[in-house]
Amino acid sequence: MKHLWTPWRSTYNNSKKEPGTCVFCFAQSGTDDRANLVVHRGQHCFVILNRYPYTSGHLMVAPYSHVSRLAGITDAAAGEMMQLTRLAEKVLEHAYRPDGLNVGMNLGEAAGAGIEEHIHMHVLPRWRGDANFMTSVSSTRILPESLTDTYKKLNGAFQGNEFNKKL
Ligand SMILES: [Zn+2]
Q1: Catalytic choice (40, 58, 120, 122)
Q2: 154: buried, middle or exposed (CB in 10 Å: 19+, 13-18, 0-12)?
Q3: Ligand 1 centre and the CA of 167: distance in Å?
């Protein structure tokens, strides 16, 4: 096998970011959450769509703090990061009915982080057979849903708070 398979390795490039600005810091500091793909804001962390998703519904949970290691955030932020990861799991299961999910983090470029300076937890729905020929061979991904539609669906689910009450 030539490559270690890491579905969340895809680079998070944001074409709207200013030069030298971290994409997570840029997104969280903006006022237009829809344009910046921020679907939910907590007290210490926020949830954002991956602009280049591995599958439809690919979410990332990130702290507001610009840190490169989990140990760099407060206990409260770490707790909320896990809480929002669990919420993302519930939202994705409800919205997409996947066969499974990937949940994980890459700390440092050597570990596969696309944006290594600002930690983020990937949460993405998976279906049997979605790692298909096209993905394996050419890195081409077949995404049946537009980011606009994904945003509407997931932003609505997060803001609805029906899942929050169940946690
Ligand atoms: Zn940052």
Answers
A1: 120
A2: buried
A3: 28
